[in-house]
Specification:
- By secondary structure, this protein is of the alpha/beta class.
- The protein has a seven-stranded parallel beta sheet with strand order 3-2-1-4-6-7-9, sandwiched between helices.
Length: 295
C-alpha cells in the first residue's frame, strides 16, 4: 500500500521561521511571553484571548518589534465552537497551523466540599474541554500538512494535589492524561504533544481565579498566590526550546522538578506537607478577609 501522506513535518532541531503558531490566552502573562518567544523565532502568529484591547496591544507590540505577521482572533476558549473556529480561521488565513499552544486557563479557589459546581464546570470548560476542541481541530489541519506540534500548558499541580485548589488541580490532571494519550496516538502523524508544567509564575493568574467559597464572593480579583514566582518570559523561552527539541514534559525550574519528585517518591511526607500548607492557606485567606472587612 502506498503512503500518500506528505513527508514528515518535524519542527525538532529546525528553524521555526515562517511557521504558523496559534497561542491562546495570549493577552497577558505566560501566553504573551510564549507569543513573543515564538515571534523572535520568526513565526507567523495567531493570538487569541477574550480581552480584545490587551490582545491588540500585544499584537501591535510584536509587529512593531519583530515585524511578524500577526492575526488576532478574540476567543472565549471555554466555548467549543469558538475554540474550533479559532483553528479554522488560522488555517484559512495562513494555509496551515504548525504549532498550537493551549495556554488559556483560569483558576478556582476553594475547598472541595465547598466548590460551587457551576464554577467548577466553567473552569473545566476553559482548562480542559476548550483545549481539547482546539487540539482536535488542529490535528485535522496538521495531518493535512504532514505534522506539527501541540503544546498544552499545564502546571506542576497537575502532578499532585493543591490544597484549596482541588478544582483547578483536577482540570490539569485531566489535561495531562489526555496529553499523554495523544502523544502516543499522534506519533504516526508526525505530531508532537509537548506538556509544559510551570510552577508559581509572576502573572495576574490568581487575581483572575474564581473564588468559590460561600460568603467570600467579594474577594474576587484579589491576589492569593503564595509568593511572586518566576518571570513569564522564562516560561516562554523554555517552551520554544521544548518545541524545537520535541520534548514530552517540561519543568521550568529545578525546584519544580524536585517538588514533583517528592510527591511521587515520598507520598507520605508530601501528604503531611499538604496538611500544613492547607492550614497556612486557610489562615492567610481568613486574615486577609478580616483586614479587608475592617477597612
Amino acid at each position: 500500500m502506498t503512503d500518500n501522506r506528505r513527508p514528515a513535518h518535524r519542527l525538532e532541531g529546525s528553524s521555526l521561521k515562517g511557521k504558523v503558531a496559534v497561542v491562546t490566552g495570549a493577552s497577558r502573562g505566560i501566553g504573551a511571553a510564549i507569543a513573543e518567544a515564538l515571534a523572535e523565532e520568526g513565526c507567523r502568529l495567531v493570538l487569541a484571548a477574550r480581552s480584545v484591547d490587551r490582545l491588540e496591544e500585544v499584537a501591535a507590540y510584536l509587529t512593531r518589534r519583530h515585524g511578524n505577521a500577526v492575526l488576532t482572533i478574540p476567543t472565549d476558549i471555554g466555548d467549543e465552537s469558538q475554540a474550533r473556529n479559532l483553528i479554522e480561521r488560522a488555517a484559512d488565513q495562513f494555509g496551515a497551523v504548525d504549532i498550537l499552544v493551549n495556554n488559556a486557563g483560569v483558576g478556582i479557589y476553594g475547598a472541595v466540599d465547598e466548590l460551587r459546581l457551576d464554577d467548577l464546570r466553567h473552569v473545566f470548560e476553559v482548562n480542559f474541554f476548550g483545549p481539547m476542541a482546539a487540539m482536535q481541530e488542529a490535528v485535522r489541519v496538521m495531518r493535512q500538512n504532514g505534522g506539527g506540534t501541540i503544546v498544552n500548558v499545564s502546571s506542576i499541580v497537575g502532578k499532585f494535589p493543591q490544597p484549596l485548589g482541588g478544582g483547578y488541580t483536577a482540570t490539569k490532571f485531566a489535561l495531562q492524561g489526555a496529553s499523554g494519550a495523544a502523544r502516543a496516538e499522534l506519533k504516526r502523524d508526525n505530531i508532537d504533544v509537548v506538556l509544559i508544567c510551570p510552577g508559581l509564575t509572576d502573572t495576574e493568574f490568581s487575581e483572575h481565579s474564581r473564588i468559590s467559597v460561600p460568603g467570600a464572593e467579594h474577594r474576587q480579583g484579589e491576589r492569593h498566590s503564595l509568593g511572586q514566582g518566576i518571570e513569564p518570559e522564562r516560561v516562554g523561552r523554555r517552551t520554544v526550546t521544548a518545541i524545537k527539541r520535541g520534548e514530552r514534559e517540561v519543568y521550568i525550574t529545578l525546584f519544580d522538578r524536585a517538588l514533583v519528585w517528592t510527591a511521587v517518591h515520598l507520598p507520605a511526607l508530601f501528604h503531611w506537607a499538604l496538611i500544613y500548607v492547607t492550614r497556612y492557606r486557610r489562615r492567610l485567606f481568613e486574615a486577609e478577609a478580616e483586614d479587608s472587612s475592617s477597612q
